[in-house]
Specification:
The chain is of the alpha/beta class. It folds into two domains: 145 residues, Aspartate Aminotransferase, domain 1 (Alpha-Beta Complex), CATH 3.90.1150; 239 residues, Type I PLP-dependent aspartate aminotransferase-like (Major domain) (Aspartate Aminotransferase, domain 2), CATH 3.40.640. Helix content is 43%, strand content 14%. The protein contains 14 helices and twelve strands. The longest helix has 24 residues. The structure holds pyridoxal-5'-phosphate. Pyridoxal-5'-phosphate (PLP) binds next to α6. The site of pyridoxal-5'-phosphate (PLP) has 13 residues, from α6.
C-alpha cells in the first residue's frame, strides 16, 4: 500500500531537503574496506582515562540509575561553573546559567531552536562543522555562510562578517579552535568580532569544544570580553579533550533567560542527560588535568609531524594551532576534493575527508585528522606521498 516513494513524500520537506552528512557517507565506503588507514574520524583514539570510567562504573554499582534534574546534577553544574570561571574569568551561576546537555550536539540544537524563528539569519563561518547548516535549516532559520580563506589562516574577520550581516541577522555562530581547519583566533581578532556583535546587537553562539586542545598559544574565549556574557551562549563538552565521545556529555552556559528557554526544549525532548555520564564528568573535571596534558602532548607531536610531512611533499597546509585536524590544499592536482579522496582511498587505502563535507568553500581541500597513532600517520603520509607522484 505504502510504497517507498509515497512514504518518502510524507517526510517533512525540511528533512527531505537536508543532505546526509558528507563524512558519514564517505565512511560508509571506508567501513566496507579492509586495511584502511583512517585520517577521517573526528574522535580521539584514546580510551577515556581509567578513573573516569571507574567513576561511572562505581556509580552503577551504587545503583545510581535514575533521572536527574532536567538541568543536570547540581554538583556537576558547580564543577563546570568553577572550571569555566578559572579559564575565562566569567562566572556562571550553577543554579540557573549552566545546563547539562547530551553532547555539544544537543546544546547546538537547543540554542538554535530556542532563538531562531522562521527567516532569522544566522551568520557562521565556513568551512565549518557539519551540523551547523542543517540544524539552522531544521529550525527554519537562514544559514548565512561567511567564507574564510586559507591566505588568512581561516580566521574569520570583522570585515567579512560586515559583508554578510543584514537587519535579519540574529545570531553569530563561532567555532574556534576550528573543525575542520585547526585555526584559532588571536585575542585581538576576538575583540574585533565581539565589538561587531555588540554594535549589531547579535547573540553569539560560541562552540569551544576544542578549547583545551591548542598547541602554540592559549585559546581566548569571546565570553571573556566585557559585555559578551550577556549576549552569548557558550557551548562546551567532554567529548574531545577528555576523550569521552561515547558518554555524550556537553553543557551550555548562558544568561538565565536563555538557559530557561533551552531547558524547556531539553526537558521535553531529552528530559536529562544520562546520569552515569554525569557522574563520570564530575570525576573528569576534578582529576583529569594530567590526562589532558598527556593527550595534548601526543596530539602536538602528531600535529608537528603531519604538518611538516604535508608541506615537504608539496601539499600546502596552514599550521593547525588547535583541535586535531590538518586542512590540506590539494587544489594543484586538478581534481575535486571528493575525487582526490576516493582515488586516494582506492589506490592507497588512506581515508581523508573531502573538504566539501564542510561547505562548498572546502573544495580543493582534504581534512586529515591526527586523532590517530603516530605510526599510522607516518604510514599514511608515505602512502599519500606515493599517491601524488602518480597524479
Ligand atoms: N562541535 C564541533 C566543532 C565538533 O567538531 C563536534 C564533533 O566533532 C561537535 C560539536 C559535537 O560534539 P559532541 O560529541 O559533544 O556532540
Amino acid at each position: 500500500m505504502n510504497d517507498s516513494k509515497s512514504l518518502r513524500s510524507r517526510i517533512a520537506k525540511t528533512v527531505r531537503d537536508i543532505p546526509r552528512s558528507g563524512i558519514r557517507d564517505f565512511f560508509e565506503i571506508v567501513s566496507s574496506r579492509e586495511g584502511v588507514i583512517s585520517l577521517g574520524i573526528g574522535e580521539p583514539d584514546f580510551v577515556t582515562p581509567w578513573h573516569i570510567r571507574e567513576a561511572a562504573s562505581q556509580a552503577l554499582d551504587r545503583g545510581v540509575t535514575s533521572y536527574t534534574s532536567n538541568m543536570g546534577l547540581l554538583s556537576l553544574r558547580r564543577g563546570i561553573s568553577n572550571y569555566i570561571e578559572k579559564k575565562t574569568g566569567v562566572h556562571y551561576n550553577p543554579e540557573d546559567e549552566v545546563l547539562i546537555t547530551v553532547g555539544v550536539s544537543e546544546g547546538l540544537d537547543l540554542a538554535i531552536r530556542a532563538l531562531i524563528e522562521p527567516g532569522d539569519e544566522v551568520l557562521y563561518h565556513e568551512p565549518s562543522y557539519v551540523s551547523y547548516n542543517p540544524l539552522i535549516e531544521l529550525a527554519y532559520g537562514v544559514a548565512v555562510a561567511v567564507e574564510t580563506k586559507k591566505e588568512n589562516g581561516f580566521r574569520v574577520t570583522r570585515a567579512e562578517l560586515e559583508e554578510k550581516v543584514t537587519p535579519k541577522t540574529k545570531v553569530l555562530l563561532l567555532n574556534y579552535p576550528n573543525n575542520p581547519t585547526g585555526a584559532i583566533l588571536s585575542k585581538q581578532d576576538i575583540e574585533e568580532i565581539a565589538a561587531f556583535a555588540i554594535e549589531r546587537d547579535l547573540i553569539v553562539f560560541t562552540d569551544e569544544i576544542y578549547d583545551e586542545l591548542t598547541y602554540d598559544r592559549e585559546h581566548f574565549s569571546i565570553i571573556s570580553v566585557p559585555g559578551m556574557k550577556e549576549r552569548a551562549i557558550y557551548l562546551h563538552g567532554f567529548s574531545k579533550a577528555w576523550a569521552m565521545t561515547g558518554f555524550r556529555m556537553g553543557f551550555t552556559c548562558a544568561p538565565p533567560e536563555l538557559t530557561e528557554a533551552m531547558m524547556k526544549i531539553h526537558q521535553y525532548s531529552m528530559l536529562c542527560a544520562p546520569v552515569l555520564s554525569q557522574e563520570a564528568s564530575i570525576q573528569a573535571l576534578k582529576h583529569a588535568d594530567e590526562d589532558i596534558a598527556h593527550m595534548k602532548a601526543e596530539y602536538k607531536k602528531r600535529r608537528n609531524y603531519i604538518h611538516s610531512s604535508l608541506e615537504e611533499m608539496g601539499i600546502p597546509c596552514i599550521r593547525p594551532e588547535g583541535a586535531f585536524y590538518a586542512f590540506a590544499d590539494i587544489s594543484k592536482f586538478g581534481m575535486t576534493a571528493k575525487d582526490f579522496s576516493l582515488k586516494l582511498l582506492d589506490e592507497q587505502n588512506v581515508a581523508c575527508v573531502p573538504g566539501t563535507a564542510f561547505g562548498a568553500c572546502g573544495e580543493g581541500f582534504i581534512r586529515c585528522s591526527y586523532a590517530t597513532s603516530l605510526d599510522e600517520i607516518k604510514e599514511a603520509m608515505k602512502r599519500i606521498a606515493q599517491f601524488i607522484k602518480t597524479l
